[in-house]
Amino acid sequence: MARFCENCGAELKENAKFCPKCGYRIPENDEILGNHEEQSIEENAQKESEEMIDSTSDTVVKKGARGTATKIVAGIVAVALVGAGVGAGYIAKHYKDNDQPEIAEEKPVENPTEDKNKEEEKEPEVDLDALLNEVDTDYLLKVCTYLPVYSSPDQISEEDLYEVYYDAMLYCMQYHADLGEEYICDERQIIPDDQFITIESNGTGSFSKTSFDKFYDWTGITRKPEDLSGDVYTYDDSAYYLMPTDAWVNEVTCKIVGKGYDKEKEEILINVEKTKDNPMDPSDEAVVTEETVVVVPSDNTLGYQIERIDNGYAKIENVVSEVN
């Protein structure tokens, strides 16, 4: 196969190391290309240059002196094609070697500090034994004499709640001795002594607007006497007023027959026996009901609250032996 100088395009002898025309050093075969793919590109380029040179041979024969110039131009074109082929081969090889960049797989970073903080945020287990000892069962029994069975405070009907406020004020007027004195009978006393203001000359009783604050804390009830409709008591900005009446409030008493707690639900369970007598008609047989008062931890001033009152006695697994 004919060889040509890469510098001037002159034809070279088979084993020539230097161009006889321009003196350019002819590189060895293994210096030209480093792989089969690049060598193929060079061979294609040389083939194209040979075809171009062959096509100019006739011109050299026919046109004499102009043939030499044509031959030189053809050689230059061949060199250019070879150079372009080598460059293209290098670019192709370089791209092939680098066209698949490695992508590091992202993994979630474990944060032991964050996990520890989450564990610390868990609410501590409630000591139900200690909480049960803190419950004021004396006041709880007094409250229970007024409350019906209910599943949540907002489920108590307006009629029932109105009767609670009315009965509590009526009981206070009937069983409170003189102004400033303690109750004669306090089994249903839920209005503190200092909240009963006075009895007017016309027999109307007046009560402070804060008379039921303790009751609200205990029950979570938010509807106040002024939020309900009725005509047996009135109110203004400073007090509640109960109209005089000859009616007597029913005599209701409660006693604890068992208490304990449900550790899983974090509930204190107090089984209560409720007895209701009608003082207006002693011949009426007393009505006895069985109820369970459910007390739960709360962030109020007491630390606990009545959540609901269930009908019937609860089965208590963690029983507290002392009953008072």
Automatic annotation (TrEMBL):
Keywords: Membrane, Transmembrane, Transmembrane helix. Residues 99-125 are annotated as: Disordered. The chain crosses the membrane at residues 72-92. Residues 99-121 have a biased composition (Basic and acidic residues). Residues 4-25 form the Zinc-ribbon domain. InterPro entries: Zinc_ribbon_dom. It holds the Pfam family Zn_Ribbon_1. The keyword Lipid biosynthesis does not apply. This is Double zinc ribbon. It comes from [Ruminococcus] torques.
